[in-house]
Description:
By secondary structure, the chain is an alpha+beta fold. It has one domain: K homology (KH) domain (GMP Synthetase, Chain A, domain 3, 2-Layer Sandwich). Helices cover about 50% and strands about 25% of the residues. It has four helices and three strands; from the N terminus they run αββααβα. The chain has a three-stranded mixed β-sheet with strand order 1-2-3, covered by helices on one side. The longest helix is centred in the first third of the chain and has 14 residues, at about 1-15. The N and C termini lie far apart (about 40 Å).
Amino acid sequence: xxxxxxxxxxxxxxxxxxxxxxxxxxxxxxxxxxxxxxxxxxxxxxxxxxxxxxxxxxxxxxxxxxxxxxxxxxxxxxxxxxxxxxxxxxxxxxxxxxxx
Length: 100
């Protein structure tokens, strides 16, 4: 549920930017539900570090929007930590190596 809601939040925020796509690949929640680690896949990859830094600066705003979306299901919204998901780059690299 957190992954779906975060994806929707990022879709709305990046719609104004144009040409940028942020998708939430995975969300891992700690056993006590206090921390949620969200792994983001960002396109285009050249802007990924800049966009991730911007998202990390806006963590409180994203958490507030998430809390509003899940308030009927979760009693407490977990603290958010964002990480870059580089699995697509890894897969591309493996494919390139195998083709050689």
